[in-house]
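Supplementary Data S3. Sequence and structure tokens for construct A.
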Amino acid sequence: MWIGADYYPEQWPKERWPLDAELMARAGFRVVRLAEFAWARMEPEEGRFTFDWLDEALEVLGRHGIQAVLGTPTATPPAWLVQAHPEILPVDEDGVRVGFGGRRHYCPNSPEYLRHVERIVEAMAHRYGQHPGVMAWQIDNELGGHRTACFCDTCRSAFQEWLRERYGSLDALNEAWGTAFWSQAYTSWQQIPLPGRTVAVHNPSLRLDHARFVSDAYARFLRRQVAILRRGAPHHRITTNFMGLFEDLDYFSLAGPLDFVSWDNYPGFRPAPGEASGAAVALSADLMRSLRHRRFWVMEQQAGPTGWDGLIDPAPRPGQLRLWTWQAVAHGAEAVLYFRWRTATKGAEQFWHGILDHHGRPGRRYEEIRGTAEELGLLPGWLEQAVPRTPVAILMSYDDRWAWRIQPQNAGLTFEARLLSWYRAMWRRGVGVGIVRAGDRLPLGPGSGAPAEGFRIVVVPSLMSLTPEGASRIEGFARSGGVVIVGPRTGIKDQANAVYPLPPPGPLAGVCGVTVEEYDSFPVGKRIPVRLQLPRPDLEEGAPAGPVLQGTGAVWCDVLAPQGARAVGWYTADHLAGRPAVTVHPVGRGAVVYVGTLLDPQLQEAIVDWALERAGVETPLSAPDSQAAVLASDVEAVLWDGPGGRSALFLLNHGAQAATAHLRGRWVDAFTRAPAGPGVTLDPYGVTVLEKAPGDPSPGVS
């Protein structure tokens, strides 16, 4: 386990560096990230490199056993470069070229900028490709942040060429985009615009292809730097730092050439009132792990109050830095670097606090992080070969996220409403989740659902863009014995962002056993009563069904026409009274649940519990009084499986009050070996790591 910080020696006097290195070593740090914003310091004028200061910083850190991840500084082109070549600056949607200042002020397609990028990366690789103090490289910084798309003439020409390669002919493009609408047929590639300012709205097909083009441009930009580093630093690992649920770039694509994924995690940045961030952070971490199916790094972990544009967010409470670190570890982090080592006294991030405050003296946050690093060093060694148990897959596609951004259809159909609510239901039960790119293979696993063996449940949370091939994989998963949960608006569009001339859910209608007869979009805040009565998990006809539950739906209402499926939920008011809202369809050895509205948490989680029982997935948590005891808790449970039948359970309390987790099976404390459970009480923001007790036969933790 690597613990460290993001360090900026170029911003502090050299006389301070030895003390910083000593304090880092005392805190258990073994790695720092350096230089990702230091282009002007490394190359003060074109072709003249000054690496002596970086050599010295690496030497000082190395004396204390600290290695470095070097960042290529391409997120901050220096002033001399912009002065000489202002054409590298991006152009906004209104055709205005932005000025120097801030960061990420470049066009990723600018030939002149790419020439300078290659030169600085090659110089760094030549200098440090064999350096004993360098262990890895980070390319750029938060690709696509602040301003993702550029609307310059170079980008327009590049977009037109990208379209030519994608479609081959204008006839094919015109057909896919439906340019007969509004007389938009193109007779020359040069006629095709970028989706900048226009009188009404651009064609949604053009906008989706432009989003793909922008993402591909950053992927090429990243691969160009990867190729240079592979030649110049062949023994070093390469990453770039992603931003969790950031949607502008296709992280599945960008992760491909990397040795490992890293990401930046700030749970306390601009928190929504009344919304706990635990599930959203967990989802981000699970996505990062799923991109390459291996452990990840947190390259920037919040270390103090965040502050942007001069506004300061609440400070992490005592215990929260430890909690956030352990949460990262529980979801697969093999390294956590805190941002930043010391709070800047100058520049735009003066109030984005680091481990040390502006004065540079160790305080409460330093001591909490030091203690956390010490704890992590005591983890059992077998956990290095363990993997999180993930019996559930949630399908996600960046094409689909872009299509939803282009046409949200209802203000309530947010990413949280469509995906995070399903994830949160699993998270509350301690059920691990893998994020799978829509269309990828869906291996079916046994009841335990270990990720190497496959999944037992697949959630398709309103996947608007769905290919027939993707639908076929979902059907194959269900027929093999899996349980599939499908949300509204799934399967309504093709890959060109055109609506299928079929009733929803389009290519998934057969496996769902249902079509959408009509639909209604509700104003935000309006709810409609829904009655739910789920069948027995074995789906035996005529057998007693489950209890009748009363709840509500909101935002979107599909009126369902079963075509072989069984109605198990109904609207009970308005013009929809008596019409089906939820269906269950037996398919092969499996089952498909179609949910036609956004259900309230009680009904949604009843469906999740039914699916878990049907799929044979047991959770590590139990509720002695009622299921509500689990749902009301702020405790997160993450289960890992290791060699020799071993299991570990991470318990994390995200609440400001003590909370008790009720466990299935027999457990021992991973550090003290003392018996634990069946009730484990955690302090506010407390963390406990347990191991399955030797000889425990519990199926839920096998």
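Construct B, processed identically:
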Amino acid sequence: MEGKDSLVLMPTGGGKSLCFQLPAALLPGITIVISPLISLMKDQVDSLNRQGISAAYINSSLTNEEINLIFQRLANAEIKLLYLAPERLKSRYFIEGLHNLPISLFAIDEAHCISQWGHDFRPAYTQLNCLKQQFPHIPILALTATADVTTRKDILTQLQLNQPNIHIDSFDRPNIRLTMADKYNGIQQTIGYIKKQGNQSGIIYCNSRWQVENVAKSLASVGINCAAYHAGLESEIRNNVQENFAKDNIQVVVATIAFGLGINKLNVRYVIHFEPPRTLESYYQEIGRAGRDGLAAEALFLYDDKDVQRIIKRINDNDDEQRVDVEMQRFQTMQGFIDAQTCRRQVVLNYFAEYTEKSCGNCDICLDPPTLFDGTLAAQKVLSCVYRIGQQGNIDYLIQVIRGEVNKQVIASDHEKVSTFGIGRDKTPGYWHAIIRQLIHLGYLQQDIASQSMLCLTQASRNVLKGESVLMLAAPRLQKASYWQQNKQHRNNYDRKLFSKLRELRKMIADAEDIAPYIVFNDATLAELASIKPLNAQQFLMISGVGDTKLTRYGKPFIDVIQEHLHLNN
């Protein structure tokens, strides 16, 4: 507001948009917003217009006639915020057009994209250094959710910001529970998890297009309302998926990181990482798409060593040695998060230089601290079974034999007759997977990569088999259910039947206006309505997320539903 440059770092869902939308509404001229995705522009413009703040966007989805019409509206001072893609600034003609406008502020969203050290570097963003050259007296507000110290410095340099005010908000999103579980049968684990969530919205991230298609197909085969999203799909299909997910017509999106920056959906209740991200920035940005309404949400990370080895191989395949070094350093930080034996949120916050000694109480490590137990007997069962089947099975096959599962492969190998067949049927596959993985890490077992990952005994395994030493193992960390389901009841002190009716009304209004339901009201607002139950306009206006424009537009139908509900229940 004072005309100074600024750099703002806030976590995903922390309110970055408000940092430029509010000044835009108060400043006399026009605010230009540089945004990377068409879908994100459309969502924000739709939302602003329904709040009574005039906004528009110019991107490749518009015709020349539509763009000219927007410039006419700009000339007539009918627009307060104009959203642009960074590619627009390559055009000298377009820059000249901006010189004719009363611009009060430039806002650059996702500013980490300008830095070569950023986890999502985009060449088009490098054009943005022209803003200070062309418009030296207009303040620039750069915003990002995830940037380490190096990236922050690079943003300031690239944009040539003049003695900027730097605002670093807390990166903590305490409503998101961080959970990690061993991945032993990823598809079935994911299906079981989603079914426990009912009809809640979720996102599943995978690292490859093939895996996205594979997971989506598996979920659809058991009746889960889902869709795949990746860069290999036609833009029309991607836009359709994103729009229907925003409108609650699709429950789950299975996606690569291509599905990300454009999501402004507030009621995503969980994010699942089916495979590890390459950086802690990516991880934190992706899980930040859950719980943007402030209500309880969960980030579930399914971990498998094989996924990690694949990522390391892909990083090393790059011919650029400097890039390999940078990416390996970033991935080592990710591995540190994976291997953490202390509060996971501390690991993340310390990485972003927000040092804290206090545990969060809302991650799997805090809720279920790692414990050691005498794993000698469990290890002996595993190692004996490897020996009895002639070291001719991978992890999955060994678990089948230990648990006494009869199938064609077991029968064909006569392994249902070995003495160790079924000695571990009292434990789950996930339990044995966790034990075997530890035995590999500790050097008692090896995987023969040249022979379909068959498990082989090592010299060190003899002492354990003979019982000559006690082997302490970490108690397996199993994903039995969603951690946040266990204690979220106290957060939701509202009339659930009324909440359901209000959601139905919201969906009906949103469909009629062809917008996402959260643009009408988000879940947090509905929960407050279902708790306080306002019966007139004055009471309705006191609800969080309700202003004069929304009261005028939507107040009566919601008050009518509340009154009818109270009448039926009295």
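The chain has a mean pLDDT of 86. Residues 278 and 331 are 5 Å apart (CA to CA).
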